[in-house]
Write a structure and sequence with these properties.
By secondary structure, the chain is α/β, with parallel strands linked by helices. The chain has helices at residues 15-29, 64-72, 74-77, 100-104, 108-113, 135-145, 157-171; strands at 5-10, 34-38, 50-58, 61-62, 82-87, 118-122, 125-126, 152-153. The longest helix is centred in the first third of the chain and has 15 residues, at 15-29.
């Protein structure tokens, strides 16, 4: 049986892409065959035994292209082991643990389309130089100014690798 795994992602400023690449490297380190691709480059899921998909969070939601990917491939994803992850700057807050249950509700639209065998929740990076100007970015700058968030890379690589290491037993049953 084919044990090739697809790790696919939707990212705006590269933080989620970095998480996907780390997940892919961890799975490769476990001896698995893995492709790590942006969602817009994935046309066919038939070569894959399992799929890991992740998105950056904007406005408490997965990116539109990520939801479109899930919708477009819903039928095939429902027949394969599927894991999902999200990358969100809110998880970088010092008291993020108290918000985790609420943040998990942001995965509900994903669960409505496909049922993940595992879910990963990770802090991202905040670099305003990689974000186009918008009212949302202006609001984020204000939140940084008052000290709720901090700029910088807040990804917890140990947590990302630990989650990825748990995936083979769930994806290749």
């Amino acid at each position: 049986m084919n044990n090739r795994i697809l790790v696919t992602y939707a990212s705006r400023a590269g933080s989620t892409a970095g998480v996907a690449e780390a997940i892919g490297k961890t799975l490769i380190g476990k001896g698995l065959q893995v492709d790590v691709l942006p969602m817009q480059d994935v046309k066919d899921l038939s070569p894959y035994r399992a799929v890991v998909a992740g998105s950056a969070i904007r406005g408490q939601k997965w990116l539109p292209e990520a939801m479109q990917f899930l919708s477009d491939h819903r039928s095939e994803l429902s027949r394969k082991p599927f894991a999902a992850f999200m990358v969100c700057i809110t998880l970088s807050m010092t008291n993020a643990g108290q918000y985790l249950e609420g943040l998990k509700s942001w995965m509900s639209p994903v669960r409505d389309l496909v049922h993940p065998v595992s879910e990963g929740y990770f802090a991202g990076a905040l670099d305003f130089s990689k974000l186009p100007f918008s009212l949302n970015v202006l609001a984020m700058r204000f939140v940084v100014l008052i000290g709720v968030w901090k700029q910088g890379d807040h990804r917890d690589w140990s947590a990302i690798h630990a989650w990825a290491e748990s995936l083979p037993s769930r994806l290749l049953q």
